[in-house]
Amino acid sequence: MGVLFRANAVALVTSLMLVGTGGAQATQAPPAAVKIGYINSAQLLQQAPGRAEAEAQFDREVGVYRQQIQRMDDSLRTLMAAFDREAPKLDSATRETRRASIGQREVEYQARARGLDSTMQARQAQLVKPIMERVQSVIEAIRAEDCCSVILDVGSQGVVVVAADKRLDLTDRVLARLKSQGIPPAAPASGAVPQPAGVTRPKK
C-alpha cells in the first residue's frame, strides 16, 4: 500500500466501528441475532478505483514542495560555506553579524519547511477524501442490504480475528461495486507553490 493511504486506513477503521449502530439505538425492536460481516481495509484501499491516480497526482505535486525545501537547504549551505571561507578575514563584529544573520535565515527556512510539510499533509488528505468516502458509502450500502449489525476490519492491526467464516467476508463484494462505479471525482489540483522570499538557487 502506498504512503498516501497508510494513515487513512485508521480513519476507515474508526468509521467502520460505528457502522450499523445508529439504527439499533433508534429502534426498540425485540432482541435478534446479531449479524456480523468483515472486510479487509488494506486490500480495499490497495485496489480501490482512483488510488493509483491519486498517488500519481500526489507524487507530482509533492515534487514541487520537495524542490522548494531542497532549494532552501542548498541556499543555506551556500551561505554557510561562504561564511566559513571568509570568516578568518573578517573582524569580530562583522563575523558575529554574519553568523547571526545566517542563524536567523536558518530559523526562517525551518519555519517555511514546516509550513510546506503541513501543506503536503493537507493535500494528501484532500486527494484521499473522495476515495475514502466512496469506500465507506459502498460498505454501508452492503451492510444495509445484508442487515449486518457490525462490520469488522480484519486488515487493521487493532482488530484480532482468530478465525472467521469466509462467507462473512464482504471485501470482494465491496471491491466489485467500487469498480463498477468507476473512479470517484478527483480533488482539484492544488495551486502553484509560491517561491518563498529570500530563497535563491545556489550559484554554480
Spell out the key features of this protein.
two-stranded parallel ribbon, 204 residues, mainly alpha, single chain, disordered C terminus, 7 helices
Helix content: 55-70%
The order of strands across the largest sheet is 1-2
Give the low-confidence spans: 20-26, 192-204
Radius of gyration: 26 Å
Global shape: elongated
Distance, first to last CA: 40 Å
The total beta strand count reads: 2
Please tally the helical runs, counting DSSP H or I stretches of 4 or more residues.
7
Q: Which series of helices and strands comes N to C?
A: HHHEHHHEH
- What structural class is derived from the secondary structure elements? mainly alpha
Average pLDDT number = 81
Largest sheet: 2 strands, parallel
Strand content: under 5%
What does this structure look like?
With about 200 residues, the protein is mainly alpha-helical. About 60% of the residues lie in helices and about 5% in strands. It contains seven helices and two strands. It has a two-stranded parallel sheet with strand order 1-2. The radius of gyration is 26 Å and the shape is elongated.
Please specify the SSE layout and strand pairing:
Layout: H1 3-6, H2 8-16, H3 21-26, E1 36-39, H4 41-47, H5 51-86, H6 92-145, E2 150-153, H7 171-181
Parallel strand pairs: 1-2
Helix pairs in contact: 2-6, 5-6, 6-7
